[in-house]
């Protein structure tokens, strides 16, 4: 394991991990017509990739930017996430958001909680009237099944010499956990890791994450703490 100071990086899923609920899922439940759940189930069953899933959900949805903004800003993040991010920042450890959801609501929620300084990588959302138009700026860089393949981003940071601590909860994290140095998992991702023999630390919220990350960091001069 690489224990060079400053070499650690935290890559975290957003929906259901940083946020207390799956914001994208709730958004489509609110604004998409009948059939959106069948599209999601096809993705979970492996019949389609997450890009096709998101395109299908967006095609069924009708909402203006103002409606989605109002909806998104009513969502919340894990109350223990900000203390965790502060802990990492004070030690020179970057926290980066990786999402196979949509940048529109992620950026709104990060700004709501004063976390707009965080880097984030997600699929893009634009509006044409009340139609949701998804874009996939990272699609061709990854596995060509995920809209935004998290495995690509993990590999990129590891190639830069980073030791990657990956945090997630669901199906979109499967590519990421295969590439990471350390994995913290809950819910569907925890079950996936167990079933596939992927070493991981279970967690329920970022209070647990903070405790586990403290255990991973070396003590003393090599703790990655900013000087």
Write the layout of secondary structure elements.
Elements: E1 8-12, H1 23-31, H2 36-44, H3 50-60, H4 65-73, H5 81-90, E2 94-102, H6 103-112, E3 119-128, E4 131-135, H7 150-159, E5 163-168, H8 174-177, E6 182-185, H9 187-195, E7 201-202, H10 206-216
Parallel strand pairs: 1-2, 1-5, 2-3, 5-6, 6-7
Antiparallel strand pairs: 3-4
Helix pairs in contact: 2-3, 4-6, 5-10
Q: Largest beta sheet, briefly?
A: 7 strands, mixed
Q: What is the CATH architecture assignment? A: 3-Layer(aba) Sandwich
Strand order of the largest sheet: 4-3-2-1-5-6-7
Order of helices and strands: EHHHHHEHEEHEHEHEH
Radius of gyration: 17 Å
- Helix fraction? 40-55%
Give me the CATH superfamily.
HAD superfamily/HAD-like
Number of helices: 10
Please mark out the parts with pLDDT under 50 across 5 or more consecutive residues, or reply none.
Answer: 1-5, 220-227
Estimated share of beta-strand residues: 15-25%
Shape: globular
The overall pLDDT, averaged over residues, is 93
Distance between the termini: 22 Å
Going by helix content, strand content and strand pairing, the class is alpha/beta
Our count of domains comes out at 1
CATH topology: Rossmann fold
CATH class: Alpha Beta
Can you give a write-up of this model?
- It is a single chain.
- This protein has 227 residues and is an alpha/beta fold.
- The chain has one domain (8-218): HAD superfamily/HAD-like (Rossmann fold, 3-Layer(aba) Sandwich).
- Helices cover 41% and strands 18% of the residues.
- The protein contains ten helices and seven strands.
- It has helices spanning 23-31, 36-44, 50-60, 65-73, 81-90, 103-112, 150-159, 174-177, 187-195, 206-216; strands spanning 8-12, 94-102, 119-128, 131-135, 163-168, 182-185, 201-202.
- The chain has a seven-stranded mixed β-sheet, sandwiched between helices.
- Helix 5 runs parallel beside helix 10.
- The two termini are 22 Å apart.
- The relative contact order is 0.18.
- The model is unreliable at 1-5 and 220-227 (pLDDT under 50).
């Amino acid at each position: 394991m690489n224990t060079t100071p400053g070499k650690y990086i935290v890559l975290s899923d957003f929906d259901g991990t940083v946020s207390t609920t799956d914001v994208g899922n709730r958004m489509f439940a609110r604004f998409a017509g009948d059939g959106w759940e069948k599209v999601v189930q096809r993705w979970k069953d492996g019949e389609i990739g997450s890009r096709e899933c998101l395109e299908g959900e967006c095609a069924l949805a009708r909402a203006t930017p103002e409606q989605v903004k109002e909806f998104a800003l009513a969502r919340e993040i894990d109350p223990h996430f900000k203390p965790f991010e502060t802990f990492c920042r004070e030690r020179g450890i970057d926290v980066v958001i990786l999402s196979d959801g949509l940048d529109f609501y992620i950026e709104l929620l990060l700004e709501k909680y004063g976390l707009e300084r965080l880097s984030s990588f997600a699929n893009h959302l634009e509006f044409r009237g009340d139609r949701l138009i998804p874009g996939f700026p990272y699609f061709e860089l990854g596995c060509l099944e995920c809209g935004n393949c998290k495995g690509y981003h993990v590999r990129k940071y590891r190639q830069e010499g980073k030791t990657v601590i990956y945090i997630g909860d669901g199906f979109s994290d499967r590519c990421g956990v295969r590439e990471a140095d350390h994995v913290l998992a809950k819910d569907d991702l925890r079950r996936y890791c167990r079933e596939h023999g992927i070493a991981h630390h279970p967690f329920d919220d970022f209070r647990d994450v903070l405790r586990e990350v403290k255990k991973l960091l070396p003590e003393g001069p090599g703790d990655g703490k900013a000087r």
